[in-house]
């Protein structure tokens, strides 16, 4: 991306987003593929270090535009939400996966491509709609990171939507479904991930991008503990709590590191949820299990960010 100074940052970001919308990314989108797919690994050598910019600690990045300018909304953004109740917290719901979409985050150089994974993509979108319905009814201002199940929405756009909205809390919803490699909804993969200082990914240029915002990390961890409890109660399963992925994602053909891209780019507390994806006797989630997953997420949001009544 062309180097620009602050005066040109807005235009630079716009250019990058336009390119992101039509570029092919590093993540293949074959339906029914295992999650995540294999793709070219950046295989960096002796990466340099860059901290993710945060509101309290602006970071310099190598060869990238300043990030102090507000990023413009793209055509994939959701429409403005309905007027919220006075003081209503903003909750961003991030249903996992997109039809194949590329992109590079202009501030960090991270590949923010996303890929389709079925039936996960459709199932977790249904769960997101259930969560939105219940939170909206409870008085929250809710923003989805995707306008529709097939809206092409890369990982950078998802993070930006939550950052621009100054969300009190963002939550990603994923599961592990499929006829091959799928996990039973009650059998495992029920995990809640929070952001922790020191979590990182390595961009395709070999630069290490580290999560550094201690205040957000502290909130993220506290909220994730609530998600763990509430999801376990609603789903009737054990749920694990993790401050990183627990292994190097580079081993799965993704950018090396140990935090999900949306959490790394977020400047707000972001709780990333995984679950089993196959209900008993089927591939994908049943209506009842979608509701169980949603109920746990809703209860967690209401406990993390209580709304004044
Ligand atoms: Zn997923």
Can you describe this structure?
The chain has six helices and nine strands. It is of the alpha/beta class. It has one domain: Aminopeptidase (3-Layer(aba) Sandwich), CATH 3.40.630.40. Strands 3-2-4-9-5-8 form a six-stranded mixed sheet, sandwiched between helices. A three-stranded mixed sheet has the order 1-7-6, with no helix packed on it. Helix 2 (120-138) crosses helix 6 (287-304) and helix 4 (214-235) packs across helix 6. Zinc ion (ZN) binds at residues 35, 96-97, 117, 120, 174.
Structure summarized in a few sentences:
The protein has 309 residues and is of the alpha/beta class. The chain has helices at 9-22, 120-138, 155-164, 214-235, 261-265, 287-304, and strands at 49-51, 90-95, 141-144, 169-173, 191-193, 200-202, 208-210, 240-242, 270-274.
Uncertain stretches: 1-34, 36-46, 55-75
In this entry the ligands are:
zinc ion
For the record, the count of structural domains works out to 1
Rounded to the nearest angstrom, the radius of gyration is 18 Å
Bin the helical content: 25-40%
CATH superfamily: Zn-dependent exopeptidases
Shape: globular
Instruction: Name the CATH class.
Output: Alpha Beta
Distance between the termini: 48 Å
Which whole number gives the mean pLDDT?
Answer: 81
Number of extended strands: 9
- H/E series: HEEHEHEEEEHEHEH
**CATH architecture name:** 3-Layer(aba) Sandwich
Please state how the strands of the largest beta sheet are arranged side by side.
Answer: 3-2-4-9-5-8
Structural class: alpha/beta
* CATH topology assignment: Aminopeptidase
As a percent range, the share of strand residues is 5-15%
Count of separate DSSP helical elements: 6
Q: Main sheet, how many strands, which sense, barrel?
A: 6 strands, mixed
